[in-house]
Target: Acyl-CoA dehydrogenase family protein
Amino acid sequence: MNLELSEEQEAVRRLAEDFVARDVAPYAVEWDRSENVDKSIVKKLGALGFLGLTVPEEYGGSGGDHLAYCLVTEELGRGDSSVRGIVSVSLGLVAKTLVAWGDEEQKRQWLPRLTSGDAIGCFGLTEPGTGSDAGSLTTRAVRDGADYVINGSKMFITNGTWADVVLLFARTNDTPGHKGISAFLVPTDTPGLTRRTIHGKLGLRGQATAELVLEDVRVPAAALMGPEGKGFSIAMSALAKGRMSVAAGCVGIARAALDAAVGYAGEREQFGRPIAGYQLVQELISDISVDVEAARLLTWRVADLVDRGQDFATAASRAKLFASEAAVRAANNALQVFGGYGYIDEYPVGKLLRDARVMTLYEGTSQIQKLIIGRALTGVSAF
Ligand code: FAD
Model:
């Protein structure tokens, strides 16, 4: 594995760093307080090519490899996890899954709009009654002539309020030993689809997270993505790659925590000198730096495997498990360095901790990642 960035990778990283410094970081606290990221950020992300990374240019993508994607995601995560999540879902879970599983017409219909930021995608797997056990979902799509009619509801859907299209997973048939789930591309303006914004989240407060309700939503059979009954595999393959992106975002959080802790420790004086000079404060800071480096290496390892076409699913679970726990630890350590000032939102570390916390929950909780890794190592499923 080559740990040197190419010129192109370094250029795209710097582009993301500048963008975050100019268009994201200065507004992150305001968006957090108002529970509303400025939606115009989506077009800006598209114009810079950040919503099309790794997508072929013929579909409006900006090409690039998965390491470049991780570099951009890390920078966005450093600036504001709510913005990072827009990209991780619209590109990472929807556009990239379309590239892998969509037919030509679906790709032409959605990819140029998703990659430019003209349209936003969301990923509808979780339901009020099924989270970790996603294979038991109950939203149902019934074939009716040339259409499918879909009924059910989806919970905690990132980008849900803003999205133009939902990559929706619904049960289509139930044969023994078969999950019977299929994937559909459902425009969110389809009659019968309603959404409710979920307010009061602990973190990612700027992000448009929604509950979707589907009542007799009628879509043509052409909305089916991939073969009928293949939806669970499609969802799992999407999430495996998605975990790499979550991990990269976590590296960004940990880096932001490190920068903040080092900066504050150098300025804050107690007992007559900067707290940076105290060994116990240095311990907090050095622990954060180890978490940053270790999480980044695990994440880059996944990108390397993906780019070389090798099996990456277990490595992605390892990276996501470690990086998400590391981001929580790093933000918590940084908060300790800030003392009481870390506890008020005039300073950045409280938000980092709140934003980091969900990373251990979504796209598979830490417990679920451990079961995936354990199954790969032992050959025994403990689910
Ligand atoms: P549960 O599955 O009920 O788990 C509760 C607890 O039980 C957890 O600690 C879990 O680890 C543990 N547990 C469950 N099963 C086992 C087991 N077999 N062994 C050991 N422990 C177990 N979903 C989407 O589809 N699309 C999205 O865009 C999306 N975005 C999200 C954004 C936010 C802000 C949040 C909070 C969630 C989002 N989710 C999304 C949903 C997320 O993926 C789920 O919340 C997550 O999978 C956990 O499901 P759950 O909340 O139902 O918890």
